[in-house]
Amino acid sequence: MTSSTPPPAPPAPKSAQPRNPLHGLTLEGIVTALAAHYGFAGLGQRIPVRCFVSDPSVGSSLKFLRKTPWAREKIESLYLFMLREQRRAGPADAVGNPPGSPTHKPVGSDQP
Q1: Residue 3 carries which DSSP code?
Q2: Is residue 94 part of a domain?
């Protein structure tokens, strides 16, 4: 009797969706990034839902967003908008001030 071994599995593709910026992100990561960038008050102004306005938390937001497809789409859209906004702003200096701002000081510059 000979034992037959199954053929080796084909190598997995590196990324099934290389052009999708949301691929590999969790909803929790998206909500946390948005809350850090805009704050829950800012999220409540941009997307007026109770989970951002009344006693907001990441947990309550996740519970609501997982059950409500239209709200999840709005959150994903706002996240993509935030990414585009950050790319347009360009890199900030070492202190965190965007280039061109009155307090922008090139790194390594000793002038005030």
Answers
A1: P
A2: no
